[in-house]
Specification:
about 475 residues; alpha+beta
Length: about 475
């Protein structure tokens, strides 16, 4: 297990306890204010999560942070605690910013048969193990909080006068000093993690059955052409032309309302057949790279909506096909300044296909604080699908990549039509290893386990 380190960007997160400029300074003085600051640190409300945040200097500036889903198997907690502490503390020391302290957050809502207080008690051994793991590396845990059912508890303070057994209510969203500072700085909290993941989840029920039938038909027609070696260029141009028309449709019909209403509107803009053709066509690396040029200006928002909609159209045995549109969604979100949404999309892509190199590169660059402008410059000089649909793309046409990614991206093969392994890996759904027609069609598709090798949800982790 190798959780990712999320670097601090003061421009995105004005939540440090102090800063170089007095105008940007926000001081947090209590556990209640720390609990209120957590969504602004991450960009969303974490669900079912372990979050560790480093503190630096005498005034305790916020530094690096790491987040991982809480493993359901308690036997994994000791290893998880050691690896999270080692990952966060070692990374800070390697960057020349060793932490002086750590804050631990355990966020989990109770089940139907639980109370928030019972969640606190159940997670206490995990909190204690995290405190021990950090302390053994000479970095003390200054505070450890459990957030559950709209309340918080401290694992550090034994005084019931300030930390009562029933917990303390969290501040109402948008009513704190932290919320005001974030609003002034333009920092947005994009709902809960579950809500963000739901926007990328595949269809279920009868709609999924209809989409699977369309994917089966499209695979029967397109995959032989893509594998023949004689017609992949024509398939590539057809896909790019269809992408151009579909993007124009999305651009001309912007949705309104809640996220759920917007996604429903976008789903209505895509027919099952055209969605299937686009999903299969994007398994070709060159087609995908040309589609990645839609990243700014009037194309960015409709392209992000399109990639999300296509990711939702990959149910059942085709679930792993969503790695391509999910990675494109992550790239557009990152290039648009929405690191939180980018991280969720890229982690979802790597959960479905841990070997997807484009997602690995973007995820690593995002977590290491790389400026996406270098990649944007490359893609600005790459013909967009609309501009280049008349000319087949070749690898020689692509502009040189930045040195940071050139070595690895050169090893990425085209993923179109790769023959699936006869022995599917245990951490991905049965079906195509890459993008051919599944050997056995499943009508509803079993849910893909949202776990990594150690059992924790693979939500925020560095690519392997």
């Amino acid at each position: 297990m190798n959780p990712h380190i999320e670097p601090v960007n003061p421009a995105e997160h004005p939540s440090s306890t102090s800063s170089k400029t007095p105008e940007a300074q926000v001081t947090l003085r209590s556990p209640a204010e720390l609990a209120d600051a957590l969504p602004y640190l991450l960009g969303f409300y974490p669900d079912d999560s372990i979050v560790l945040v480093t503190l630096h200097g005498e005034r305790g500036r916020f530094g690096g942070r790491v987040r991982l889903g809480i493993p359901a198997d308690t036997a994994q907690w000791p290893d998880i605690a050691d690896q999270l502490a080692d990952c966060l503390i070692t990374s800070g020391r390697e960057r020349g910013t060793p932490p002086h302290g750590i804050i631990v957050f355990l966020c989990q809502d109770p089940s139907a048969a639980e109370t928030g207080r019972e969640v606190r008690d159940r997670l206490r051994p995990l909190a204690q193990r995290l405190r021990t793991a950090c302390g053994s590396r000479d970095v003390p845990v200054m505070e450890a909080l459990c957030l559950s059912n709209g309340r918080y508890w401290s694992y550090v303070c034994p005084d019931e006068r300030c930390c009562p057994p029933d917990g303390i209510p969290l501040a109402l969203p948008g009513t704190s000093v932290m919320a005001a500072a974030a609003a002034y700085a333009g920092v947005q909290v994009r709902g809960s993690l579950k809500e963000m993941e739901a926007r990328l989840a595949p269809l279920t029920g009868p709609r999924a059955d209809d989409q699977i039938r369309a994917l089966d038909a499209a695979a029967a027609a397109l995959v032989p052409r893509m594998l023949s070696g004689q017609d992949p260029g024509a398939v590539r141009e057809e896909t790019c032309a269809l992408l151009t028309r579909t993007l124009h449709t999305f651009r001309s019909d912007p949705p309104s309302g809640s996220h759920r209403a917007k996604d429903a509107c976008d789903d209505a803009l895509l027919g099952n057949g055209e969605a299937a053709e686009l999903i299969l066509g994007l398994q070709d690396r060159l087609t995908r790279d040309r589609a990645a040029a839609w990243l700014e200006g009037p194309d960015a928002a409709p392209a992000l909506r399109l990639w999300r909609a296509l990711a939702r159209r990959c149910p059942g045995a085709y679930e792993s096909h969503a790695a391509a549109p999910l990675t494109l969604a992550g790239w557009v979100a990152w290039a648009s300044g929405d690191a939180a949404s980018a991280r969720v999309a890229l982690c979802r892509a790597l959960t479905l296909d841990p070997d997807y190199l484009f997602a690995q590169l973007l995820h690593r660059g995002l977590n290491e604080g790389l400026d996406p402008e270098k990649l944007r410059d490359c893609l600005r000089s790459t013909p967009s699908p609309a501009a280049s649909s008349a000319t087949p793309a070749t690898s020689a046409e692509a502009p040189p990549l930045p040195a940071e990614v050139r070595a690895e991206s050169a090893t990425e093969p085209s993923r179109a039509g790769r023959v699936p392994s006869r022995r599917p890996r245990a951490d991905r759904p049965a079906g195509p290893r890459a993008r051919t027609r599944p050997a056995a069609r499943r009508r509803t598709g079993r849910p893909h386990p949202r776990t990594g090798p150690t059992g924790g949800r693979r939500d925020d982790r560095s690519p392997r």
